[in-house]
Amino acid sequence: MQKLKEKIIPNQKLSPELLDNLNAQFEVAGPDEVLLWAYHTFGSDMTLGTGFGPSGMFLIYRLWELGVEIPIFYLDTNLLFDETYKLKDRIEERYDFEITRVTPELSVDEQAEKYGDELWNKNPNRCCYLRKVRPLRNYLSDKRAWVTGIRRSQSESRRDTQFVEWDPENNVVKINPLASWTGDEVWNYIRSKGLPYNPLHDEGYPSIGCIPCTQPADGKTDDRRTGRWNGSDKTECGIHLPTQQKNGKKNKLTPNNK
Ligand code: SF4
Predict the structure, then answer these.
(1) How far is the CA of 99 from the centre of ligand 1 (A)?
(2) Can you say whether residue 84 is alpha, beta or left, with left for phi > 0 and alpha for psi between -120 and 50 degrees?
(3) Tens digit of pLDDT for each residue in 192-251?
(4) In this structure, what is the dihedral angle of CA atoms 122, 118, 104, 53, given to the nearest 10 degrees?
(5) Among 16-20, 81-85, 99-103, where is mean pLDDT lowest?
(6) From residue 72, how far is each of 150, 160, 242, 248 by CA, in Å?
(7) For 1, which of 21, 41, 113, 153 is 20 to 30 Å away at the CA?
(8) What is catalyzed by this enzyme (predicted)?
(9) What CATH number was assigned to the domain covering residues 15-247?
(10) How remote is the CA of residue 252 from the centroid of ligand 1, in Å?
(11) Of 187, 176, 173, the residue nearest 53 (C-alpha)
């Protein structure tokens, strides 16, 4: 990656050509190179968002090992599993840092008063917008980049995920160091290092989000988002729109990239 480092300087503008070049190089690099490049480029104006899934466990560990100190946050919908909150506490203790809690404007009760009980059943898109999409947008409004754990193999809608892409919804650069990894690769790493993870994965939950919208799936933990929004065709909460849907064209960036 020496060649790559020579090409990038902090605050350099990310032209579409540079982005294509970077993504091509990251295809044969590893997550560490992506993280280090991102840190050299954005510094602490970059943040990692996690839902405490396996990819997040991997990325938090790699940041810690690399000595890369950036803010880490999670979207607390107030509807997460106890196991998820306990895992957050465990991570904070293990790595000795605080994970920022990003919350919706409305409590669950206030949301019920305004929109009716169990909005997640009647209109999950609106519920996700209120409890995840809007809080995320607010939180990222003063950031230049955010790191996510999404991977191409997780779902059809994520198959075009790039390592570095423009996120027009949040007006930031989105960094996906694990874009090309499979679920097995992430899990093998977690087990080889004895990293903490959500115990619900061992109880048949491949993907874990809010309690009302998460169900266990048949079979063992796998690579998909099985068990989320069962009974509907919804597969995403709206914070990770497919690359082509977001950009109209892959890797299209705004002119100044903040
Ligand atoms: S995952 Fe379900 S409960 Fe959570 S914000 Fe979305 S619709 Fe609401």
Answers:
(1) 21
(2) alpha
(3) 999 999 999 999 999 999 999 998 886 543 445 556 656 666 666 778 877 655 544 444
(4) -90
(5) 16-20
(6) 16, 25, 23, 29
(7) 153
(8) [thioredoxin]-disulfide + sulfite + AMP + 2 H(+) = adenosine 5'-phosphosulfate + [thioredoxin]-dithiol
(9) 3.40.50.620
(10) 30
(11) 187
